[in-house]
TrEMBL record:
Protein's name in the database: ABC transporter substrate-binding protein
Residue ranges of every copy of the Fe/B12 periplasmic-binding domain listed in the record: 44-336
Keyword Signal appears in the UniProt entry: yes
Organism this protein belongs to: Paracoccus pantotrophus (Thiosphaera pantotropha)
Endpoints of the signal sequence: 1-21
PANTHER family (UniProt xref): IRON(III) DICITRATE-BINDING PROTEIN, VITAMIN B12-BINDING PROTEIN
A Pfam family reported for this protein in Swiss-Prot or TrEMBL: Peripla_BP_2
Length: 336
């Protein structure tokens, strides 16, 4: 099976660049409709989610991270040493009490289903009452409605500008604007190169794709990528049609329907989580090749099944790395 990797992970050297002014406190931001004010840079932070944790590490703030949770894949290799010194409160959702016990100056996440109106960790009001500011990545709420389902639905295609906005806001909160600007500049350059590589493939309009995250049970309808999430963004840059048209972030779609759409290739999520049997990439591949419906799809017959770190399918810096790898992998297929 061809494999997507992050072998070309960027190393952010934070090269000298134009100096940015220091943050003027008090700093007030609006985070997913919730106003947050900082009188000074937080002395510590709890990060609920791999995406925000790795951004904090990129900003050189590992020493500020008092605890992390909600890990899907191993940490990026260049941050393994720093992460080893940070307490992991939970592999999945931490309890509200475990977060409060760290007495953080801030709690951050990329998901409203973690911290939000029905947050499994807590609501914004619960953290306000505890006098702990909470901040959510703008990727989670701009152009996205999370009121009808846990994963929400996007009314517009994911835009990496929201990712960069999140990095910029975190840099301002912690008064490390120079570091934030360096990280963003490096990511934008890498994204531009990845998009150029993707567009250079010049794939026919008939090429289509499917991104499979997981399944609650292996034989029932899988969770697949909707039209406007990160995988939809990747496919738009590749000039590839998503066989799933739903605005939901991760709708369930029957394999019979998917088989009729007959995607040219399938990208399956790889993760360390084992909430469902289909979280295991080996289980996914075995199902695709043995099931009487899925085994008849062209992508399966022609071994056009790719793997991708699950976190890269969510709004994160890994999405940019994954676009690079996806373009390289598709170049090796006979899709013209």
């Amino acid at each position: 099976m061809p494999r997507l990797t992050t072998a070309m992970i960027a190393t952010f050297t934070l090269a000298p660049m134009a100096a940015f002014g220091a943050t003027e406190y008090p700093l007030t931001l609006t985070s997913c409709g919730h106003e947050v004010t900082f009188d000074k840079a937080p002395e510590s932070v709890v990060s609920v989610g791999q995406s925000t944790t790795e951004i904090l590490y990129m900003l050189g703030l590992a020493d500020k991270v008092a605890g992390t949770a909600l890990w899907i894949n191993p940490v990026l290799p260049e941050f393994a040493e720093a992460d080893a010194g940070v307490e992991r409160l939970a592999d999945n959702a931490p309890s509200f009490e475990s977060v409060l016990a760290k007495k953080p100056g801030l709690v951050v996440t990329a998901y409203e289903w973690m911290i939000g109106p029905q947050g499994v960790v807590g609501t914004r009001e619960m953290f306000d009452d505890a006098q702990i500011p909470s901040w959510i990545m703008p990727t989670e709420c701009v152009g996205k409605d999370n009121t009808q389902s846990m994963d929400g639905a996007r009314s517009v295609l994911f835009d990496t500008a929201l990712l960069y906005q999140g990095i910029e806001e975190l840099a301002a909160i912690f008064d490390v604007q120079d570091r934030g600007a360096a990280v963003i500049a490096d990511l934008k350059a890498r994204e531009a190169a990845a998009v150029e590589r993707a567009q250079a493939l010049d794939l026919p309009e008939t090429v289509s794709g499917l991104f499979w995250y997981s399944s609650a049970e292996i034989e029932i309808d899988p969770y697949v990528a909707g039209a406007n999430g990160v995988p939809g963004w990747m496919m738009s840059k590749l000039g590839v049609r998503n066989v799933v048209a739903s605005a939901e972030e991760w709708p369930t779609v029957g394999w019979e329907t998917i088989s009729k759409a007959n995607p040219s290739f399938i990208v399956a999520a790889e993760m360390n989580r084992r909430r469902f049997p289909a979280d295991d990439i080996a289980v996914k591949r075995d199902f695709l090749t043995s099931d009487p419906v899925t085994s008849e799809m062209g992508a399966v017959k022609n071994d056009r099944i790719l793997t991708m770190p699950a976190n890269a399918m969510d709004p994160s810096v890994r999405a940019i790395y994954a676009l690079e790898s996806l373009a390289d992998s598709l170049a090796g297929f006979d899709l013209k």
